[in-house]
Write a structure and sequence with these properties.
There is one protein chain. It is built from 9 helices and 10 strands. Helices cover 38% and strands 25% of the residues. It has 2 domains: 257 residues, Transposase Inhibitor Protein From Tn5, Chain A, domain 1 (Alpha-Beta Complex), CATH 3.90.350; 51 residues, no CATH class. It is α+β, with helices and mostly antiparallel strands. It starts with 6 loop residues before the first strand and ends with a helix. The longest helix is centred in the last third of the chain and has 24 residues. It has a 7-stranded mixed sheet with strand order 1-5-6-10-9-8-7, with helices on both faces. It has a 3-stranded antiparallel sheet with strand order 2-3-4.
Length: 318
């Protein structure tokens, strides 16, 4: 599998409070699919829920000569997203493959803010500019100790309004580099480019938003793969559209469940009682197999609060 990216729905002034993510691309036997997720903070109470948005498939279109690619699919996706949500404030969070001039220009044109990974090996000119600016005391650096994990020291350096690369000198971005030193002096480094103006006050929040991509991706795909949605199972079937239909149906089921997780107290109680979504789905299927039920509400009430059980011999038809 190949995972790529992320979109975030964030208040630009409170990047640390609301973070969301567009997944990326999922490579299986059949194709690459671009998916989009938002992680929303419900009424500011800290209830974070992943909400999927309709995927843009990476596949050759009718009449096309060349194969489709991730960059073209991303362009179509963002165009359609902005058409459907012309006023929604979002921050796109993606990995280092997306920090290229054409993609950033597309994001700017569509009024989409961004935090994009930027690796030294892919952006030699950018890092050289930052190093030169540091020698001239134009780079801001600071560090802080994590009060919850005092064994870790966090270091930051940032520079606003620097050229992305040598071939696009007029495309200016803001650069943030972060590294942490943990036990045994282990050093972990990350770096991003963004159109958000970086300050000492928001650098930590921007770093957390950039790093949140991995956490949201991993948790979401763990759910889709291991909690009963069967992501990838038999998705190689079909010669034309069958695999895409399987993926879309799976995402629709996931969307409905996430809406219930976010807003339905009865679903939340049934899920808590079951302990995992996989076991909850098994209980739901069991009721469908063995009972005539009038609604999903009845099933969730039985799951959450129990039901009267009978001896099988008392209800057997023979």
């Amino acid at each position: 599998m190949h995972f790529l990216a992320g979109i975030v729905n964030v208040d630009p002034h409170q990047v640390s409070r609301r973070v969301v993510i567009k997944d990326n691309t999922f490579r299986n036997l059949f194709a690459l699919h671009t998916r989009f997720f938002r992680k929303i903070d419900v009424e500011g109470i800290g209830l974070l829920v992943i909400i999927p948005v309709f995927p843009e498939m990476i596949t050759k279109k009718d009449g096309a000569v060349k194969n489709d690619c991730e960059r073209n699919a991303a362009r179509r996706f963002y165009e359609e997203f902005r058409r459907e949500h012309p006023h929604l404030k979002v921050i796109v969070v993606e990995d280092g493959l997306s920090s290229n001039a054409p993609h950033i220009q597309d994001l700017k044109r569509l009024d989409l803010r961004f935090i994009l990974g930027a690796k030294p090996g892919d952006h030699q000119y950018l890092f050289e500019q930052v190093d030169l600016a540091q020698e001239q005391d134009k780079v801001t650096e600071f560090e802080y100790a994590d009060p919850d994990k005092p064994e870790k020291i966090h270091y930051f350096r940032f520079l606003n309004q620097v050229s992305l690369n040598q071939s696009s000198p007029d495309l200016l971005v803001n650069f943030l580099e972060y590294w942490q030193v943990g036990k045994g002096d282990k050093i972990t480094r990350f770096s991003w480019v963004t159109d958000l103006t970086i300050t000492r006050e928001n650098a930590v929040a921007i770093m957390r938003a950039g790093r949140a991509r991995w956490k949201i991706e991993n948790e979401t795909f763990n759910t889709l793969k291991n909690q009963g949605y069967h992501l990838g199972h038999n998705y190689g079937l079909g010669q034309q559209n069958l695999s895409a239909i399987f993926a879309i149906l799976m995402m629709l089921a996931f969307l409905l469940d996430q809406i219930q997780q976010m807003s339905c107290w009865l679903f939340q109680e049934a899920w808590e009682k079951a302990g995992s979504k996989r076991y909850l789905w098994e209980q739901v299927r069991a009721f469908f197999h063995n009972y005539r039920v009038d609604s999903m509400e009845t099933i969730y009430r039985a799951n959450a609060h129990g039901f009267e059980r009978h001896e099988l011999k008392d209800v057997c038809m023979t």
